[in-house]
Write a structure and sequence with these properties.
- By secondary structure, this protein is an alpha+beta fold.
- It folds into two domains: 193 residues, Chemotaxis protein chec (3-Layer(aba) Sandwich), CATH 3.40.1550; 61 residues, Roll (Surface presentation of antigens (SPOA)).
- 37% of the residues lie in helices and 24% in strands.
- The protein has ten helices and ten strands.
- The strands form two sheets. It has a six-stranded antiparallel sheet with strand order 1-5-6-3-2-4. Strands 7-8-9-10 form a four-stranded antiparallel sheet.
- Helix 4 crosses helix 5.
- The longest helix is centred in the first third of the chain and has 26 residues.
- The radius of gyration is 35 Å and the shape is elongated.
- The relative contact order is 0.12.
- This is Flagellar motor switch protein FliM.
- It is found in: Bacterial flagellum basal body; Cell membrane.
- It holds the Pfam family FliM.
- It comes from [Clostridium] hylemonae DSM 15053.
């Protein structure tokens, strides 16, 4: 006679079967996190915010450079920033081959500090096709590789193309800092460049340029010392600008102190005269030009090309001088 199971035995059997099914179900594997190794011996010098700021600057640079190349090469060029990273200088120098050349650009900062130059490299395929377009060619040679060697004529045109691109640097940084461009020179032996040590931190900006069916890269290497000085000047300016927004008691004095250091051009004008081209060409030493005005008449003082005062011409300590008599702004309502 078959054994009859009790209700408790049936429940236990069902529970064991359910547990065995759950155990057989494969567990979902969680994706492993990829951790980036950090080198504590050479810590990063620039924060993510600084690199993000640098990317924004060169996004603007890419738009300006694309517009400039469109006009110079008479073809559509697209430029975008691929990456902005902090690396060591040898990471940049190692990608250059023996046939590579690069441009060196010195930047003049407002603090007049001496800094190493910025380095710019353009891939041979892109540069050769740019030169071809400048000379009236089609600029679609896709067979150029890194083994290509520039001739003397191409080197001169290389400098010409780079000048178009480097002149935009001042405008790209203009929203953050006022910089002036210094010397520009072509370095034909990048491996011999020793103004920067191989372990010095640098910021490498990689831009991709697409011209018709040609793709190429522009690599900009900014030395760490130069970039630190730029960021320090930007941070100081932000700090000083913030003082005026906080409504501190001596904000007016701070503003006036900065304004008082500025210089303004002042010139005195007695009268004007108009001459024909024939009369100007006939002028010689000893000729007299009639101003149709009395020598006792008032002179007008111009401040930055704006008329501000009327005065009397005279002498002071044996030097020509003007004595201010009246403010032109004050007399304007009386003339109405």
């Amino acid at each position: 006679m078959a054994e009859v199971l009790s209700q408790s035995q049936i429940d236990a059997l069902l529970n064991s079967m359910m547990n065995s099914d759950a155990a057989e179900e494969p567990k979902e594997e969680k994706p492993e996190k990829n951790w980036k190794k950090y080198d504590f011996k050479s810590p990063k010098k620039f924060t993510k915010d600084k690199l993000k700021l640098l990317k924004g600057i060169y996004d603007n640079y890419g738009r300006l450079a694309s517009s400039r190349l469109n006009g110079v090469l008479r073809t559509a060029c697209e430029m975008e920033v691929l990456s902005v990273e902090e690396q060591r200088y040898f990471e940049f120098s190692n990608i250059l081959s023996e046939n590579d050349v690069m441009m060196m650009l010195n930047l003049k900062l407002p603090d007049e500090s001496k800094n190493p130059p910025m380095m710019i490299h353009i891939s041979q395929k892109l540069m050769v096709n740019m030169i071809d377009r400048m000379l009236g060619g089609t600029g679609d040679d896709d067979d150029v590789d890194s083994s290509y060697t520039y001739s003397e004529i191409e080197s001169a045109l290389y400098k010409k193309v780079m000048k178009y691109l480097l002149d935009i640097t001042r405008d790209a940084w203009g929203n953050y800092i006022k910089i002036n461009l210094g010397d520009q020179r072509l370095e034909e032996n990048p491996g011999l460049f020793q103004e920067i040590s191989l372990d010095e931190p640098v910021a490498i900006v990689l831009l991709n340029v697409k011209m018709q069916n040609i793709d190429g890269r522009i690599t900009i290497c900014i030395p760490g010392n130069l970039l630190m000085n730029i960021f320090n000047i930007i941070d100081k300016r932000k700090h000083v600008d913030g003082l005026y927004d906080e409504g501190i008691a001596n904000s007016r004095e701070l503003i006036m102190t900065r304004l008082n250091r500025s210089t303004m051009e002042i010139k005195a004008e007695l009268a004007e005269a108009q001459l024909s081209m024939k009369e100007v060409c006939g002028l010689k030493v000893g000729d007299v030009i009639d101003l149709n005005k009395s020598r006792e008449s008032d002179v007008v003082l111009y401040v930055e090309e704006q008329p501000w005062f009327r005065g009397k011409l005279g002498a002071h300590n044996k030097n020509a001088a003007v004595k201010i008599k009246q403010c032109i702004q004050e007399e304007a309502p009386a003339d109405k």
